[in-house]
């Protein structure tokens, strides 16, 4: 609940989360004429990327932090407020709007976009360096390990299947149980028997890195040493769905937020995009989801065209009522123009 001392800021749209999906949604709603704030805590999976992969127009030399900083600068140049704050809860205001409570302020909006992502569950140490031998996204990084020695850490069905998928790019794949008992089903066990994958039961006791920081080998409890260029940890995900639960949104059994093709949740005015929703966890897909949600929000919030019933009761739209874009965004857009 707010009090008189709370800094309350009102917007058409508040986006919670400053990853690729959240930034994309904020960019679209801003440029489509809606006052928008992107409220982010910083960090996230995209910020941890040493190199951005699989994104047309962005080279592998670009880090995740560089990519996100460029995005933030773009949004601010277009008139979006990008705010560093930690959002703790969300709820309805009673008049059809949504209140988002942060550590530093409260944000009230007609529409809210939840783009809070998830955390990968990390295996216990010792571990290779993240991005230099320890990876979490098969679709992003399998290309890096073509014809290299690769491990997959985990003891689930998904870990076993990722190990088998890696056989499409290399003939040297180990599945590391790290002392855990297999949790896969009989069908997965048969699949492993029919594919050239070594299942290593002993735990990892040490890591050997090269001068460039990349993994060279792992040491095991039985004294053996196995050379690897890198690999993938498969221990599941922890979805940041608490705000969606606060607002009464439907949550899927796996922890993702249930959405339609345009990011709409089961609650009016609440959208969700990116890694916190079902689907492939890719930057390019997150950008598209943010764009689709931004456009869907515009259809819900835009002033014109008014429907026939409204113009019949209130009269035709007057010259003084257009354009509908707020003055501050109008000024920003005019400044952006380079036609002359």
From TrEMBL:
Pfam families: Pyr_redox_2. Residues 11-290 form the FAD/NAD(P)-binding domain. Keywords: Flavoprotein, Oxidoreductase. The keyword Oxidoreductase applies. InterPro entries: FAD/NAD-bd_sf (IPR036188), FAD/NAD-binding_dom (IPR023753), Ferredoxin-NADP_redctase_2 (IPR050097). GO terms for molecular function: oxidoreductase activity. This is Thioredoxin reductase (NADPH).
